């Protein structure tokens, strides 16, 4: 079993945590890259993914940081 932990930092400074799971390593890597594809173009300040095995060992991890405009909005 593999787990994909998705962590999103919101513009107000709070965080959201989403846990996905997969039966095989290949399925886990696929979901991991799916999350990172969204994170790469996200407008969140920070958006990351970590692939863990069933024993909690980190297999892969990456974080995208997106600088925020002064004042926190682009309006």
Description of the structure:
With 75 residues, the chain is of the alpha+beta class. The protein has a domain at 2-49. 21% of the residues lie in helices and 43% in strands. It has one helix spanning 25-40; strands spanning 2-9, 15-22, 46-53, 58-65. A 4-stranded antiparallel beta sheet has the order 2-1-3-4, with helices on one face. The protein is elongated.
Comma- or semicolon-separated keywords:
alpha+beta; 75 residues; four-stranded antiparallel sheet
Distance between the termini: 44 Å
Sequence of secondary-structure elements: EEHEE
**Mean pLDDT figure:** 93
Question: Helix segment count?
Answer: 1
Radius of gyration: 14 Å
Summarize, please:
Helices cover 21% and strands 43% of the residues. The protein is of the alpha+beta class.
Which helices and strands occur, and which strands form pairs?
Elements: E1 2-9, E2 15-22, H1 25-40, E3 46-53, E4 58-65
Antiparallel strand pairs: 1-2, 1-3, 3-4
